[in-house]
């Protein structure tokens, strides 16, 4: 059988690992990939001539190259919009996430690649919109793919803490409160209540809700 194995690295450190096989924790497939990585360091080598290549190219060549790439790669275009602090196409990310719903591994990849990039570039409102879509998705897959459900739910916890630590405190607490007070899924309720308790007063949240 073939399985999807993903290992994310940052500064040569492993930040997350995922395998679509049915085994829990660290499986032999992840171990095999890690072994291969240890024995083939050349796959991580960087082209030290990139800066020279860019600086030596003419402005006209760079502009023509980027225009052609942007026309054929909407993801790259949106990443450039963020990099250049231009208006981004929020609908692009919303549709990209919705299209990822066909396979849970694609949603996991979205949380590991697109969400951190959006948080780093301070697009917090959009991240909350995407997080709400993921909560709705979790409720849909709960009964047939618990492994993916559990991974994505933990990713949401990380996303909320990341936003909170960026100073986006009240919107995060309001977002969590709305889910906690309205979700019928016990797993989602427990996880995000725990998230709320680490950054806010969860007892006061429930007391205020009872009063209202």
Counting DSSP E segments of at least 2 residues, the number of strands comes to: 2
Summarize the helix and strand pattern as letters: EEHHHHHHHHHHH
Q: What fraction of residues sit in β-strands? A: 5-15%
Q: Helix count?
A: 11
Major sheet: arrangement of strands: 1-2
Quote the distance from N terminus to C terminus. Answer: 54 Å
Indicate the mean pLDDT. Answer: 86
The biggest sheet, with number of strands, parallel, antiparallel or mixed sense and barrel status, is: 2 strands, antiparallel
User: What share of the residues lie within helices?
Assistant: 55-70%
Taken from the alpha-carbon principal axes, the silhouette is globular
Q: What structural class do you assign from the helix and strand content?
A: mainly alpha
Q: Name the poorly predicted regions.
A: none
Computed CA radius of gyration, to the nearest angstrom: 20 Å
């Amino acid at each position: 059988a073939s399985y999807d194995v993903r290992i994310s690295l940052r500064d040569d450190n492993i930040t997350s690992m995922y395998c679509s096989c049915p085994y829990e924790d660290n499986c032999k497939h992840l171990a095999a990939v890690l072994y291969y990585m240890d024995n083939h360091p050349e796959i991580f080598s960087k082209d030290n001539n990139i800066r020279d290549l860019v600086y030596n190219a003419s402005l006209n060549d760079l502009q023509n190259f980027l225009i052609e790439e942007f026309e054929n790669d909407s993801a790259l275009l949106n990443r450039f919009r963020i990099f250049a602090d231009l208006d981004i196409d929020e609908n692009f990310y919303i549709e990209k996430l919705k299209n990822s719903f066909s396979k849970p591994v694609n949603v996991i990849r979205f949380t590991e690649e697109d969400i951190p990039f959006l948080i780093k570039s301070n697009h917090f409102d959009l991240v909350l919109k995407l997080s709400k879509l993921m909560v709705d998705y979790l409720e849909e897959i709960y009964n047939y793919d618990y492994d993916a459900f559990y991974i994505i739910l933990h990713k949401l916890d990380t996303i909320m803490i990341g936003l909170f630590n960026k100073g986006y405190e009240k919107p995060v607490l309001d977002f969590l409160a709305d889910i906690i007070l309205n979700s019928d899924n016990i797993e989602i309720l427990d996880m995000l209540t725990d998230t709320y308790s680490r950054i806010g007063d969860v007892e006061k949240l429930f007391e205020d809700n009872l009063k209202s």
